[in-house]
């Protein structure tokens, strides 16, 4: 299994707005081959720190998604957020190979 976490830090007063965006996400990734699960995690001590946690069957499945037209489409939408504070946020991405369960 392959795990990808993308963490962003937004002002605390913007956290609920970003959560709402993800609650209403397009779900295009759900259709990708090898996709297993999506979760949005909120740091309980730092409410403005949110992590998109995705699990994939394997690294190649993730790479296929990351190179897809659907991936590009979703990330183009992010550039068009009406809120300027959310528009320029760059996530910190970490990738993991699951080596034990």
Automatic annotation (TrEMBL):
All copies of domain ABM, residue ranges: 2-90
InterPro entries recorded: ABM_dom, Dimeric_a/b-barrel, Heme-degrading_MO
Superkingdom of the organism of origin: Bacteria
Protein name: ABM domain-containing protein
Species name: Halobacillus andaensis
Source lineage: Bacteria, Bacillati, Bacillota, Bacilli, Bacillales
